[in-house]
Design brief:
Blueprint: E1 2-5, E2 19-24, E3 36-39, E4 49-60, E5 63-75, E6 80-84, H1 91-99, E7 106-111, E8 114-115, E9 123-126, H2 138-143, H3 153-166, H4 182-194, E10 200-204, H5 212-229, E11 232-237, H6 240-246, E12 249-254, E13 259-265, H7 277-287
Parallel strand pairs: 6-11, 6-12, 9-10, 10-11
Antiparallel strand pairs: 1-2, 2-3, 4-5, 4-7, 7-8, 12-13
Helix pairs in contact: 3-4, 6-7
């Protein structure tokens, strides 16, 4: 057994860990099981997101299709949680339940001490498609988030401009979706989710449709936003490297029905070096769960 003691510069990490031991027992080619164990200084409290014994099924003609079975999770305030799994494992369904977009399930989802029974402004969500209205400008698409609120117009304008600056779209306020790139459109969608100042940000494969270089850039932008805003964030992705780069923990899901196979901590300082041995070891460990099938 070889033990690696990692010194973490807490000044560079928005999610510091008190104690980190990375243990490995392998030749380089071996599958890396139970690679990482970690203790975090974050503790559960009344702001935590609690998912308890969640089961979700669909009725298909005369057959019941169970999509999620026995999901139990606790997400601590300020944590960045990545969820990975092959298509059909129910990870996007779980995100919709947390958002309150679907309330037909067994079990309970409690956020900030209250049972989730529908959508709420404290929870923002960004989908894979940016879903911008083509006849609206960048600032109009962001301001649309206020349509169901009583926020005064002056404050709306101010917060829209603040979010445009945060996501780096200064100068594009009057641009229409067809006049900006796909990556910039996703930034608009993220700004629209953030402008309501949610406490919990839900991301459903937000970079899945983008080219590789744009995806890498927006991953860095998302990390910067997470550190800047201090949001509890849950990311659903097929991309294991993305999950390791961004997450404090990685929830690995299996399919038919969707269950949590295991949870892998990622006790690496930020910003993370994708080429480092420890980063690649964690990535290889997670990918071994899928035998390279259906995972980027």
């Amino acid at each position: 057994m070889t033990t690696y003691n990692v010194a973490i510069d807490f000044s560079k990490s928005a999610a510091p860990f008190n104690k980190v031991n990375i243990a490995a027992d392998y030749p380089a080619e071996a599958h890396l099981k139970e690679l990482v164990t970690a203790e975090t200084n974050k503790t559960p409290n009344e702001e935590s997101l609690l998912i308890q014994n969640v089961v979700k099924s669909y009725q298909l003609q005369n057959t019941t299709l169970k999509v999620l079975d026995g999901i139990n999770l606790e997400i601590i305030p300020g944590e960045f949680l990545s969820i990975v799994g092959t298509s059909g494992c129910g990870k996007s369904t779980l995100l919709r339940l947390i958002a309150g977009l679907d309330t037909q399930y067994a079990g309970s989802i409690v956020y900030q001490g209250k049972l989730v029974t529908g959508t709420d402004l404290s929870r923002g969500i960004v989908f894979q498609e940016h879903r911008l209205f083509p006849w609206m400008t960048v600032e109009e698409n962001i301001e649309l988030a206020f349509s169901a609120t009583d926020v005064p117009n002056a404050e709306r304008k101010l917060r829209v401009q603040q979010q445009i600056q945060v996501v780096g779209l200064n100068g594009f306020e009057k641009a229409y979706p067809h006049q900006i790139s796909g990556g910039m459109s996703q930034r608009v969608a993220i700004a629209r989710a953030l402008v309501l100042k949610p406490k919990l940000l839900l991301l459903d494969e937000p970079f899945g449709a983008l080219d590789a270089l744009t995806r890498l850039k927006l991953q860095q932008e998302l990390q910067r936003l997470w550190e800047h805003e201090g949001l509890t964030t849950i990311l659903v992705t097929h991309d294991v490297e993305e999950a390791v780069f961004l997450g404090d923990r990685i929830v690995v899901m299996e399919s038919h029905p969707g269950r949590i196979k295991r949870i892998v901590p990622v006790p690496l300082p930020r910003p993370r070096d994708r080429s480092s041995y420890l980063f690649q070891s964690i990535k290889t460990d997670v990918m071994s769960d899928f035998s390279m099938a259906g995972v980027d």
